[in-house]
Amino acid sequence: MRLASFTRRTLVPTVLGFLFVGSAVAQEAKPEAKAKEINRLKVLLVLDSSDPALAKGVQRDGRNFTNLLASSIPKDRYELVTIAGESITADQVLTHYKNLKVEPDDGLLFYYSGHGSIRPGKGHTLEFQRGKNPLTRADVVAAMTAKKPMLAVLLTDCCSDRLSLSDLNSKEGVPHAVNAPTQLTALARKLFFQTRGLVDITAATNDVAFADDFRGGYFTNAICRVSSQNKDRPLGWKEFHTAVVRETVSIHQDAIRAGIAPQLRKGQQFQEPALINVRLTDADPQVKVAAVISLVNPTNSELEFEYRWESSQPWLKKKIPANGKISIGTWLPPTLTTVPDMTVKLDGQEQTLTPNRFDKEGTPRFSDGRAYRLSVSKDANNARPRTFVADQ
User: Fold this and answer.
1) Going by C-beta distance under 8 Å and a sequence separation of 6 or more, which residues neighbour residue 124?
2) Per-residue pLDDT of the chain (392 residues; tens, 9 = 90+)
3) Given 236, 257, 278, which residue is the final one in a domain?
4) What is the number of other CB atoms lying within 10 angstroms of the CB of residue 34?
5) 254 near 212, Cβ under 8 Å?
6) Does 317 lie in the same domain as 209?
7) Looking at the structure, do residues 312 and 250 belong to the same domain, yes or no?
């Protein structure tokens, strides 16, 4: 859940050290199928304001997301239903989808702002009424896909890690001008009307999702900003997600510098939305190419480090479990022949690592990139800074 006002949307009783970060199975439309676009996008906004500490931020999220739709999609191409207030129930959401008439050429979009957590044995859960009436993410997915839409998209601005609430407030708002469009923006057309399958994204990876009273959720803000900046660009979901990650991290960093968001706790990362398990057809190769690196931690202690792909990007924090391995990827334009290096920062030292090129279906997070293993060298009896060494 989340820090809003500054509070985070989290419920203490159901915390695990892991956040279901979302899944996406999206099949992009083939070129010849573009004439057969999704006809109408049926949107459900669920805004749980039962927690007074979150209420203003949740309301801001609702306005931001509603304005985004209104400025990107003509009125006759989408239907909007909003469930909001302090007494939202799981039955309301499930009944909505049970009774919803969905044509074969319709798409579904579910947006949620409020509390969320991980419940043992149930996975990621939307914690309506501050946990009194929970709804599992799996049940939302099942309810949507049971209607057999051409596309189902889930976007949730919530998280599930434990952090004390604070009373910090933001003085900065993020207005979004609304000009009713006569046609779809290129971005909205690509994301919501030419994509096939399931897209499921959550606001944070393994940690906290933040919000404040004036901006609302940083994840939602990032979606709005990236959409505004790229309205004329037909980005696929992976490219869009990459841009949203960068913007979310940037917003979070700015909030920390401004004293709006709390300083990062030990081991905490900047908020980074995640999109995993993506499968694409050959119709859209621009979102299938990636640079990928795998990092191995052979020690008995968790390893934390920072990384970035470009010097203009902010540093991102990652952790590798003890005796564990992770893979990190960045999506590339298909025409890019030179794969970018990744810079890592460990023990105050920077190191350049060369990835391999990833041209398969699926996600780089779960693929085998060029592997580098943590190494600790010694000079006489003095340990040198730790480095990553290519794993032969």
Assistant:
1) 19, 20, 22, 116, 117, 118, 136, 137, 138, 160, 202
2) 455 545 445 543 332 222 223 333 344 444 444 447 999 999 999 999 988 888 999 999 999 999 999 999 999 999 999 999 999 999 999 999 999 999 999 999 999 999 887 777 787 889 898 888 999 988 999 999 999 999 999 999 986 543 222 222 333 333 344 456 789 999 999 999 998 888 888 887 756 788 888 789 999 999 999 999 999 999 988 889 889 988 998 999 888 888 888 888 776 778 888 664 454 444 444 456 778 888 988 888 889 999 998 888 888 888 888 888 888 888 777 667 788 899 999 988 999 999 988 776 555 555 567 889 998 766 656 667 789 998 76
3) 257
4) 13
5) no
6) no
7) no
CB of 271 closer than 8 Å to CB of 219: yes
For residue 349, give the CATH number of its domain: 2.60.40
249: part of which helix (H) or strand (E)? helix 237-257
Helix axes 218-229, 52-72, angle to 10 degrees: 10
Please indicate, yes or no, if residue 279 is contained in any of the structural domains: no
Residue 318 lies in a domain: yes
For residues 97 and 177, membership in a common domain is answered with: yes
- Which ranges of 315-359 would DSSP assign to H, the alpha helix? none
Residues 309 and 167 in one domain: no
Report the predicted TM-score, pTM, of the whole model to 2 decimal places.
Answer: 0.67
What is the rounded radius of gyration, in angstroms, for the C-alpha atoms of the chain?
21
Structure tokens at 133: 């009436």
Tokens representing residue 200 in the block: 């499921």
Q: Are residues 67 and 183 in the same domain?
A: yes
